[in-house]
Amino acid sequence: MTISYQFNVATASFAGFPKLLARWKGSVYKLVFKEVLVYASLYIIISFVYRIALTEPQRRTFEQVCLHMEISVNFIPLTFVLGFYVSFVVGRWWDQWNSYPWPDRLCFLIILYISGTDERSRLIRRTLVRYLNASSVLLTRSVSIVAKKRFPTFNHLVEAGLLTKEEFTYFEDLNIQYAKYWVPLVWFTKLVDQAKNESLFKDPSGGMKQIMDELMNFRDKQAKIWAFDYVSVPIVYTQVVTLATYMYFVGCLFSRQFLDPAQKYENYVADIYIPIFTLLQVGAPVATSC
């Protein structure tokens, strides 16, 4: 879920961005704190065993294992794998947003070409817009949990006034294996043609073609949204990223241990109990892979 925060940074204020970092809802902290706690617990257990439970010869062996893991984890191209995957997923997410079919342009054309003030013209305009909204709701029910909870059954569309009982019967009788969100658009087309035959559609400059072109664009965007849900990110990509991330940080449980400074290993000059930067490094990949 996207959390809006523009209001918090709309104007410059003292400690504005630190306050933004402290937000919990929708934050990276809320997303990864469980994984970071589990990782920190495992790290502490291994460190405790190294410092307390092992004998001196066993500690030397453990240190050699840690030094070897420090070299080995660098063989995993975590930065490249995560960079590719995040770029792919964020691009897909943004493309979904840009592909959402908004009915506004069609509504403007309907008002322009069916502009009569009589009851029949007003009813046709309302019915055409209702068909567009019904089609959008039928689409979002198949791809959004929020929309599915709002309209758990097709009867709820009738209760909301998006479909009449007669239209609902026609819709139910249509035996199609796949999604039927496009059916109200067929009714939309027939009603526009009916309005033209009744001389309610003013078409001095190709208005019918303009409406149909816009309707086809609306339908194409619906199909793209549905395809985004139907065709998932290839599972092999997710598996590669998950394996690379988890294997890398399993190795870091050993390679990031603070070894005995008395042994004078290279880059091990201080003995620190809490690996702060390692925990920060754990949080970022986990957040991106989520």
Write the layout of secondary structure elements.
Blueprint: H1 16-21, H2 28-53, H3 56-72, H4 78-99, H5 104-113, H6 119-143, H7 145-150, H8 155-159, H9 165-173, H10 183-197, H11 207-230, H12 235-255, H13 276-289
Which stretches are poorly predicted, pLDDT < 50 over at least 5 residues?
A: none
Distance between the termini: 12 Å
Characterize the overall form.
elongated
How many extended strands? 0
Question: Mind describing the biggest β-sheet?
Answer: none
Helical run tally: 13
Q: Which percent range fits the helix content?
A: 55-70%
Q: What structural class should be given to the helix and strand makeup?
A: mainly alpha
Topology pattern, helix = H, strand = E:
HHHHHHHHHHHHH
| Rg, alpha carbons | 30 Å
Oligomer kind: single chain
Question: What fraction of the residues are assigned to beta strands by DSSP?
Answer: under 5%
**Overall mean confidence score, pLDDT:** 85
What does this structure look like?
There is one protein chain. This protein is mainly alpha-helical. 69% of the residues lie in helices and 0% in strands. Helix 5 packs antiparallel against helix 11 (207-230). The mean pLDDT is 85.
